[in-house]
Amino acid sequence: MTKPPRKPSQPLLGKAEAPIRSRPRRRRDPAQPNLTLDPMPARIDPCLALLKPRPPRGPQWAFEVKWDGYRLAVHIEPSGVRILTRGGHDWTDRFPAIAAEARRLPVATAILDGEAVVFDAHGRSDFGRLQQSLGGRGGKRVSREAVLMAFDLLYFDGRDLTGTELGARRHLLEGLVPAGGEEAIRLSEEIEADGDVLLRIACEHGLEGIIAKDRNSTYRSGRGGEWLKIKCIQSDGFAIVGYEKSTASFGGIGRLLLAARKGNEFVYVGGVGTGFNERSAAELREQMDKLIISKPTVDTGRKRNAVFVRPELVAEIQYGGWTHDAKLRHASYKGLRDAADNPAVYQIE
């Protein structure tokens, strides 16, 4: 005969009259009273797209339009909204329409990843127009016409989503920022199409290119290959190392002298003499004349009427390819990248 189980001296969960409470996972931050799970990070370094010549193939790849603007992270917190540039600078006051729209979103806490753009008459993002709206590099103007094209959601109502796959992040983002909106924050929509076909259509419509993203990937800072960019026209950042003077050109600039990086050094990659207007040339000349040096940073060969500057300014240059001696072909100036955007100088392999 089996013995009956021994009667415990007290209930398994403690005293019978005491309320049952689970132990909290971590101490709550009083500055974030609504968050019971993951503290909101002050800043997340962005995931960057790796340049590829052709779109990838496979069902795991999702495609979007490549936007030409400034990368921003919009932090929605109980205390208010913060808009951070790629370099971590607070530009909330520079984008009042985006900040106001972020306050209206139906969410207590969130971090949106996206690109601030200004559209031209044909609905294409125009980097030059965005720069003009902000007053040029180093300008302090407010851009009321800029729109945030949101393409990722990194934090949502107390949950850190960076370890969640892209498909789930996009599902939550589409519930927060619905497609087809005309507000200051709009959804960068996924496009269901073959990558090669989409790239051809994008190029025919004068767009900069497309972005491919691995649906199964988590959000990883840096250029790890989870996101790829395929461009219609090459456009990259190059350091300005000087200019050739001309009395017949805007701002007295005949040609900008440009350099790329090779390892830890700069190498001369040719010049650009088109793409300026009177205003952009005058602003550019003012910036360069503060950086004049007596000797060039790189060997530019023999140049007439050349003025050399410290390589601190990064110009966005559109170009058609490279010559046999590693110089830019059919180059055109698009604008100066702002230091707050943490601009990268093209790296020669």
Overall shape: it is: globular
CATH-defined topology of the domain at 65-192: D-amino Acid Aminotransferase, Chain A, domain 1
The separation of the N and C termini measures 83 Å
Secondary structure class reads alpha+beta
Summarize the structure.
The chain has 349 residues and is of the alpha+beta class. The protein is built from five helices and 19 strands.
Keywords summarizing the entry:
globular, alpha+beta, 5 helices, OB fold (Dihydrolipoamide Acetyltransferase, E2P), seven-stranded antiparallel beta sheet, 349 residues
Structure, explained:
- Among the domains are: about 65-190, 2-Layer Sandwich (D-amino Acid Aminotransferase, Chain A, domain 1); about 235-340, Beta Barrel (OB fold (Dihydrolipoamide Acetyltransferase, E2P)), CATH 2.40.50.140.
- The model is unreliable at about 5-25 (pLDDT under 50).
- The protein contains five helices and 19 strands.
- The protein is an alpha+beta fold.
- The protein is globular and about 60 Å long.
- The chain starts with about 50 loop residues before the first strand and ends in a 12-residue tail after the last strand.
- Helix content is about 15%, strand content about 30%.
Note the topology.
Elements: E1 50-51, E2 61-65, E3 70-77, E4 80-85, H1 96-104, E5 110-117, H2 127-134, E6 147-156, E7 159-160, H3 166-176, E8 185-187, H4 195-204, E9 209-214, E10 227-231, E11 234-245, E12 253-262, E13 265-272, H5 278-288, E14 292-293, E15 306-309, E16 314-319, E17 321-322, E18 328-329, E19 332-337
Parallel strand pairs: 1-10, 6-8
Antiparallel strand pairs: 2-9, 3-4, 3-5, 5-6, 6-7, 9-10, 11-12, 11-15, 11-16, 12-13, 14-15, 16-19, 17-18
